[in-house]
Specification:
Largest sheet: none
Number of helices: 8
Radius of gyration: 20 Å
Strand content: under 5%
Order of helices and strands: HHHHHHHH
Helix content: 55-70%
């Protein structure tokens, strides 16, 4: 007698909906839009001048065109919420970014720092408007850790599964690497800021893991408390 062969079914990951992507994206934009400018303004009002510059930083050249990869961080920030496929991948991306933003802004308000060198005047018709825009939205504060670098660590793990070939993964790594080092060559960050940003990004990746069986409600309470501390300190 021939027994029926059992069939194995594998549950497919639930794909994130447009509404879910918008919800997570707007939440991250709101937290960043509240905390980052407030920390920047607070340091500016206090007239902060201390930095973590090292002797090595004095040898870093200013490279005007590096403003292009620097600004790519915003493209990755918005695009990541639409690039990831599953709901779990969206949750992981969102929670990692939120954690990086809140932890960094807590450091910014508790230990405010300033970039130590003056950026050379940019007169090029091509690059000057971009630096003018950068100067309006990102003052030389909010230094350590570099959120650009922390975000790049998170972006790498979010976008890497979408790269089917080694060449695409290499191109992604190169692009995110340029975004990270652009923080140095645009005179936005010092070397220790970049190192601390990489540590922060790695910590957020380690703390927020994929395929968590239950909702991590405590994380959102902790993030909310962090936002209150940032805004309360400024108040």
């Amino acid at each position: 007698m021939r027994l029926p062969t059992p069939t194995l079914t594998t549950a497919l990951p639930t794909r994130a909906t447009t509404a879910q992507r918008l919800r997570h994206g707007l939440l991250n934009a709101l937290v960043f839009g509240l905390c980052y400018p407030v920390a920047n303004l607070l340091a500016q009002q206090q007239g902060i001048s201390r930095s973590v510059a090292t002797a090595w930083d004095a040898h870093i050249a200013f490279v005007p065109w590096m403003v292009l990869p620097y600004m790519l961080s915003g493209v990755f920030f918005v695009g990541s919420f639409w690039a990831v496929g599953s709901l779990d991948a969206l949750r992981v991306l969102s929670q990692r970014l939120l954690l990086a933003t809140v932890l960094a802004c807590l450091v910014f308000v508790l230990v405010p720092l300033r970039f130590s060198m003056e950026r050379p005047e940019v007169t090029s018709a091509l690059w000057a408007p971009l630096y003018a825009l950068l100067g309006r939205v990102d003052q030389p504060y909010n230094q350590l850790p570099s959120l650009h670098v922390a975000y790049c660590c998170i972006f790498w793990l979010a976008w890497r599964p979408l790269c089917a070939t080694r060449a695409r993964r290499g191109a992604l790594l190169l692009t995110l690497g340029l975004v990270s080092v652009a923080t140095l060559f645009t005179y936005q960050h010092h070397a220790l800021d970049v190192l601390a940003g990489a540590v922060l990004g790695g910590a957020c990746v380690a703390l927020v893991r994929p395929r968590r069986p239950t909702p991590w409600v405590a994380l959102y309470y902790a993030l909310g408390a962090g936002v209150v501390v940032v805004l309360g300190t400024a108040w």
